[in-house]
Design goal:
664 residues; alpha/beta; seven-stranded antiparallel beta sheet; six-stranded parallel beta sheet; 26 helices; 13 strands; disordered N terminus
């Protein structure tokens, strides 16, 4: 079990000790082992700071007491006070005098033990003899004991590792590394470089030695040992794990041995772009986890990482997981990446990660925002499986009860929104029409909750698709178009004509139009929006539809219909008409003469792509109020149009392109 802070001691020490040297045959040395480092019970209430250096009188009194109590003959040894330093390689005195005038090399220590006769003494055996140290307190002795013993055992580990490595005994090196890691699990010393030391030793040997297959399991067991799971693996270790963990014989270790290490990596702040070894290890781990347990393994891992509290101590977890998803997707669709060979197997893992994150209510909005802003690789939009999965995610956003999640369907920060990404075009109509309708259906209620401007502005660029969907009886798009017209989001004259035409093709659209006409009449007594007909409308269809229109109608749009000159007899009932569009119809000179004789308030007339000739132009000269006239792609001549221009003093805008009069 890991040690608590109350059990931990510093590694670098300096303090006042009373020492005695016994020159005799030392006790038989014991080889360092994990058992020798077992923790003795000590007073948990002791301070962790080193004891203050006692006064000179106190030291002399302590020496006298030790002389009386010591089992060592005074004639053959003497007690002296020293200020002792413990470094990485030596035990030495600050004052280079007495029997500690020479430092004691750590590598020369044969054994370290605590004397049972007193709680404040310890013994260090060397080839020269035995050193006895008396500390000011029992806790201070524990500090010195564990710190010296750690240095002593590590020195013997290093000697053994070096000797086995020089002889090329890889199996012995691997076994020693495993023992070293087990030893570190019980070290009650708190120091970051000491906790990281086993990983550095393993990394060094992975760089310097080519371990055969028979050693892999031993090294993996050492890396998976409890105690290393809170450390950050080095590039060599990540490479070793990424290479060998996928092997079927080692894959079972993923859950039992390396889960805590993954938790540690995902809880600390890390830029995986600068740590590609960690990125590779994490992606490999997730792939193995998914292969062994499918989505259940990913779910269990994220549940361990997730917390519903806003005061989560590991806020970095969510950002790290999303960063992992981003970089993995970027690598997957990189043409030069080896992952392309197993693209589907790779993507399904991270799709499971995102799906699981969306299952957590407090992560759903953050996930939606992250995906809304993420610039997916271009290659992703050429992958049918990836697009199919993204659609399932978008549908989850659209069906979510939170309005903030649904708003993530809209564009953000210059990135295409999902409503733009999946707008149906001619080529993709079948694939995207349903999901586009689902998104708009979820966004429509938001217009009544204070988000009208955001929703309509995001759908204006998809105006053509909205018209198509409205014409195919999607009621949500009928309302969207109605709101666009009502709030003047559609300002182009041609687009307005298309919108009214789409609305008139449905029952709900016609009802909206009639209600709109009533509102206009109730405010200023005139109909400002054009009366429209579907493309197949004939003269009789127009006559029947006009019967229900008020006499105050001011605009009629018959673009792309099948009306002829006979329709003029039905139009002249509305004496206050100001705008008529007959663009792309078989309208004739006969009908034009009827209009010119009766509609004296007409200010805008579109006769583009009709059968008008100079004969009809002569009749237009009576419309002094005409300001806008479009005659492009008709059969008029330059002379006929010149005569007309002279007779229309208020004409300010005209179009005669693709006619003989285009040079006028």
């Amino acid at each position: 079990m890991p040690h608590t802070s109350a059990d931990c001691y510093p590694l670098q020490l300096e303090g006042s000790l009373v020492c005695c040297f016994e020159r005799h045959q030392p006790a038989a040395p014991r080889s360092p082992s994990v058992a020798n480092f077992s923790r003795a019970s000590s007073d948990s209430g002791c301070s962790h700071r080193l004891a203050r250096r006692p006064s000179r009188n106190k030291l002399e009194n302590m020496v006298s007491r030790m002389r009386r109590r010591s089992s060592v003959s005074v004639s053959s040894s003497r007690w002296e006070p020293f200020v002792i330093q413990l470094t990485e390689d030596y035990i030495r005195s600050v004052e280079t005098q007495g029997f500690l005038s020479e430092a004691i090399p750590i590598s020369s220590i044969l054994n370290v033990s605590r004397l049972q006769t007193t709680k404040m003494q310890l013994r260090v055996d060397t080839p020269r003899g035995s050193m006895f140290f008396t500390a000011p307190s029992a806790y201070s002795r524990e500090q010195w004991y564990y710190s010296i013993q750690y240095r002593y055992i590590m020195a013997h580990f290093n000697i053994k590792l070096k000797a086995d490595q020089e002889k090329g005994k890889a199996l012995l090196v691997a076994a020693t590394i495993k023992d070293l890691v087990s030893f570190h699990r019980k070290v009650p010393i708190v120091q970051e470089d000491i906790q990281q030391l086993p990983l550095e030793i393993i990394s060094r040997h992975l760089r310097e030695m080519d371990f055969p297959e028979m050693c892999w399991n031993t090294i993996l067991e050492a890396l998976g040992s409890n105690g290393l799971d809170v450390q950050i693996p080095t590039p060599e270790i990540c490479e070793f794990l990424s290479k060998h963990l996928p092997e079927s014989s080692f894959a079972a270790m993923v859950d039992s041995e390396f889960g805590d290490m993954i938790m540690t990596l995902l809880k600390r702040q890390e830029d995986y772009r600068r740590s590609p070894h960690i990125l590779k290890f994490l992606t490999t781990y997730l792939q193995i986890l998914y292969k062994r347990r499918r989505k259940a393994g990913v779910v269990d891992l994220l549940k361990r990482l997730h917390t519903v509290s806003v005061d989560c101590p590991h806020q970095q977890v969510f950002d790290n997981v999303m960063q992992l998803v981003y970089l993995a997707l970027g690598d997957a669709f990189n043409p030069d990446c080896e992952l392309r060979k197993k693209l589907n197997d790779f993507l399904v893992v991270f799709q499971a990660v995102v799906d699981t994150m969306l299952d957590f209510e407090d992560w759903r909005l953050k996930t939606a925002v992250k995906l809304q802003d993420y610039p997916f690789p271009q290659g992703a939009w050429n992958d049918a499986d990836f697009i199919a999965w993204v659609k399932t995610v978008v549908v989850r956003f659209a069906n979510d009860s939170s309005e903030k999640v649904r708003l993530c369907l809209l564009p953000s920060r210059g990135h295409l929104g999902w409503v733009q990404r999946f707008t149906p075009s001619t080529r993709e109509l079948r694939n995207n029409a349903d999901i586009f309708a689902t998104m708009v259906r979820s966004l429509r209620p938001l217009m009544d909750q204070g988000w009208r401007r955001e929703v309509l502005e995001s759908l204006v660029p998809q105006f053509a698709a909205c018209c198509y969907m409205a014409e195919h009886s999607h009621s949500d798009f009928v309302e969207i178009l109605s709101r666009m017209l009502e709030m003047n989001y559609i300002v182009d004259h041609r687009e307005q004509e298309l919108a009214w035409k789409a609305l008139r093709s449905t029952v709900k659209g016609r009802n909206f139009y009639n209600e709109y006409i009533k509102r206009q009449n109730s405010t200023d007594g005139s109909s400002l929006e054009p009366f429209c007909m579907p493309p197949t409308a004939t003269d009789d269809d127009v006559a029947n539809a006009l019967r229900s229109q008020p006499n105050s109608l001011q605009a009629i749009n018959l673009t792309s219909t099948a009306v002829t000159g006979e329709v003029a007899n039905h139009l002249i009932r509305f004496r206050h008409l100001k705008s008529i569009s007959l663009w792309s119809t078989p309208f004739t000179d006969k009908g034009l003469r009827i209009l010119a004789d009766n509609l004296t308030e007409l200010s805008s007339l579109d006769l583009s792509e009709t059968q008008i000739t100079d004969s009809g132009l002569d009749a237009l000269s009576r419309l002094n109020s005409l300001e806008v006239l479009r005659l492009n792609s008709t059969q008029i001549t330059a002379g006929g149009f010149k005569r007309l221009k002279k007779r229309l003093p208020n004409l300010v805008e005209y179009n005669v392109s693709y006619t003989a009069a285009s040079e006028v």
